[in-house]
Design brief:
The chain is mainly α. The protein has 18 helices and no strands.
Amino acid sequence: MQAAQPEIGAIQRRTLFSSFIGWMFDGYETSTLILVGTTAVSSLISSSDPAAVRVGLGTALSSTLVGWAVGGIIGSIVADYVGRRRMLLIAIAGYCVFTAFTAFSQSLEMLIALRFITGLFLGTEWSTGTTLVAETWPPSARAKALGIMQSGYGFGFFLAALLWLFIQPIAGADGWRWMFAIGVLPAIALIYIRGSLPESKLWEDAVAKVEQSASPRKFTLLEVFQDEVERKYVVASLIMATVTVAVFYAITALVGPFVGGLAAKQGLVGQKWASISALVYNAGAILGYVSAGFLADALGRKRYMAVTFAAAIASGLLIYFMPLDLYIVLACIFVLGCFTLGVFSWMPIYLPELFSTAVRSTASGFVFNAARFVAFPLPYLTAFLFVSLGGFQATVLCITLLYAISLATLTLLPETKNKPLPA
């Protein structure tokens, strides 16, 4: 008799490693533009005019996010046709090539165009990596693996922040180019995983089943919306994803300036403490990411999400009532990060368990990326709230109350703990 194969072996470790590396450098890439954007735009337009630099940086950031959303939807659809492995490798390779080109940008227009193209591949990586891990890891460890994968984004942020801390004073005005050049490092991992990364057996079986049927395969996005149950799941999960994305982007724009201003009032360097607050917020997020899988397995998927959504509202209350002592504020921001950024882990854990194999990547990627289009107006609303409500604390509370919508929507969705992935 052959010895029983372990549930978690080389195949599972390779899929998690490849998806984690891809998502970590997605976090690195998007964080790099935020960190070096002012320096990069100033050097490319040969101007230090604050208004011109802000417009240029804002356009480059928007270009990346739009590319991310478009590429994420397209890439997730393609992954249901050509396979998870192939699309993941394409995403990592494309990201490496175009982030390298970004390092050689000669004009603002070139930077903006390359950011959009890079964003196309950044968006593709999440849905294909998530689906591949979900379909190769056993049910007993799937949620934990996906929580760890999601944490890669936070580690990418830390990597970018630490490298910029050392590179900026050494490389000077061209330091931003080195930051983008370092983004090519996943190519080394790509060489390692290219031959050893397996394809999803579930996907191969689903494709074989379709090929054996007499009817032609439907367009996957159309198929999702034609199925009554999956359409309901897409709409409900899109509502929750929109709240998750909107709350994060709104709060992220407020944390740094608030802490920086508070530090400046105490005679400290405001910019330094604003950067520290971003690291603290992200450290809380990593705790939220990694713990999510363990909580989802212990509590069940829906109870884990309900607890986390409610905790996000509670973290808003904590911010509202916190005393304005710098260190207490940072502690509260750590908690805020756990539940307004760390909450993102519900998507890689839960979304693959809602949809059938033939459309799993399409549906998951659509929800994750379409939420960015739906949530796009919230930063403008945040600015209005900030003025109307009189500052950071009341605005954060108001924004986190949006999670009441997620709690209500969650009642429309099923529990999936200990259930096999839909065939």
